[in-house]
Specification:
Strand content: 15-25%
Number of strands: 9
Oligomer: single chain
Strand order of the largest sheet: 1-7-6-2-5-3-4
Largest sheet: 7 strands, mixed
Shape: globular
Radius of gyration: 17 Å
Length: 235
């Protein structure tokens, strides 16, 4: 579901949030900590560690605002293709600079929406050890703060129907961190009255992206460690 410009529709993401709430609270036991840290309005990026196949749906159902995720094109197969597009998710080709996906993601931020990104690029250990520059680009270009999110599921092997999923009815902790800017001291202007951010810091040189990526990695890794201590587990 998109608008006339091709930007994913907020209505679609809101529908996805409703589905996520029913699915996640029906199959698992989410415990959400720090959701109040997500800005109530304006553009924001949720940077999520990625260790389970349900991390995207889990965030859709537990975040306080509807989320548009960047999702690999390989997931858009069969009936999932119209479904994922219908709930406002963004298909991205990871093998190239996907300009359509970039334009749609920036459109989400420009309209004051929430963009969800797995900065590691693919499901793995979920420890933010390897970050791509895409997150820094969107944060700088879209003038959006980043909220780190740690999704920590059970490591227990028993009770799993699928190895990449936590056991059914197990507790999954979703910990939202403090919002921060990609570059220290970066600020975005706001339109009067609407509270909507417009434009970025303007610094999108390779040096600025590298600096922002290092800062982001440090903040995300620190949040993941804090979330592990807070919940008593690390994955």
């Amino acid at each position: 579901m998109t608008d006339a410009t091709g930007t994913p529709s907020p209505r679609g993401a809101a529908l996805g949030r409703g589905i996520g709430i029913g699915l996640m609270y029906g199959l698992f036991k989410p415990r959400v900590l720090g959701a109040w840290r997500v800005p109530a309005a304006g553009p924001v990026i949720l940077a999520v560690n990625h260790s389970h196949n349900i991390d995207g749906p889990m965030l859709m159902g537990t975040a306080p605002r509807p989320v548009h995720f960047l999702i690999k094109k390989e997931a858009f197969v069969g009936p999932l293709d119209p479904f994922l597009h219908g709930i406002g998710q963004i298909e991205v080709d990871r093998s190239t600079a996907d300009r359509t996906a970039i334009t749609r993601a920036l459109g989400v931020l420009e309209s004051g929406g929430v963009l969800g990104i797995f900065p590691e690029g693919t499901r793995g250990d979920g420890d933010f050890a390897s970050l791509r520059a895409g997150l820094a680009y969107f944060a700088l270009r879209g003038g959006a703060p980043i909220v780190p999110v740690a999704v920590l599921g059970s490591t227990e092997r028993r009770g799993r129907l699928i190895s990449a999923l936590p056991p059914l009815r197990s507790r999954v902790d979703i910990v939202f961190g403090e919002a921060f800017e990609a570059l220290e001291g970066a600020r975005s202007s706001r339109e009067g009255g609407g509270g909507r951010r417009v434009g970025g810091s303007g610094r999108r040189t390779r040096k600025a992206l590298d600096e922002a990526t290092l800062r982001i990695q440090d903040r995300l890794t620190g949040h993941l460690e804090h979330a592990g201590r807070l919940t008593g587990r690390t994955g």
